Amino acid sequence: MKKPSRREFIKSGSLGSLALMGSLTASANTVAPRKFSPAPNKRDRMLELLDPNSKSNYIPAGFFMHFNKKGDEAVRAHLNYFRATDMDFVKVQFDGMSMPRNEQIKEAKDWYRMPILPESWFEPIIYIIRNLVRELKSEAMIVQTIFSPYQMAKEAVPWDMLVEHVKQDPEAVCRGMENVALSIARFMRAAAKAGVDGFYTCSQGGETNRIPDFALFNRTIKNYDMMLYKEASELASCNIMHLCDYDGDYVGFADRFRDYPGHVVSVPLKADNQPLTLKAASELFKRPILGGLDRKGAIATGTVEEVKKATTKLLENAPEKLFLSANCTVAPTTPIENLKTAIQLAHQFRQG
Question: What domains does the chain contain, in order, with CATH numbers?
Answer without folding.
Answer: 1-36 (no CATH), 40-349 (3.20.20.210)
